[in-house]
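Q: What structure does this chain adopt?
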Amino acid sequence: MVETDPGGIWPLALDAVGYRANGQRLVDGVSLRLTPGPLTCIMGPNGAGKSLLLRLIAGLIAPSTGRISYGGAAIPRRNRIAVMFQRPVLLRRSVAANLTHALKTYGAARADRPGRVAELLALGRLTGLAGHPARVLSGGEQQRLCLVRALAAEPDLLLLDEPASSLDPQATAALEALVATASESGVKVVLVTHDRDQARRLAGEIVFVHRGRLVERTPAAGFFDRPQSPEAQAYLAGQLLI
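A:
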């Protein structure tokens, strides 16, 4: 049992959370408790509500019904949660300047920023590209930059929404190695992916959603070998879920 972290976000709890838009119920009564530990992968068919669920967890959108709490509080402490999306969003500055700006935003002391930038560049295998304009990097390099920029906040929780969906296998492998390093360092990672092989490689547990509902939560090995719900069984069999 994880005790409440004073001033932190654990446990992060969703209680009967729902979300509606344009008269449609897109997330339906999800109850989920997140604590530090192995990577959690959110899977499900297109339109299942995976990305919406991630945004709800991040506090980027408010639930229509139910409640989300962060260590017992209604709002997470600043910088405790970092989010990375499918498409990179970068400033029209150099690679290093993107990281320096992030550190300034996160409140890092000016004297500490150069050393921290060097550490992040090394972590992302971007040291040789420090002076390059960020927006001319390859897709994989941009995503690695976005990931280490998110890690610059030293978050407790890192939320990733299909970060490798447009990358080739080599770039995907480099990004996955960085995600695994973050997870092994103690950052709780929640990853939305449609890539089953990626989920097998990275996930400690699977949260499977369908039609906005949490259908199954199970250790990753059990999910792929012995899915419990009919929806997950159909999904893994390649059947169309409606």
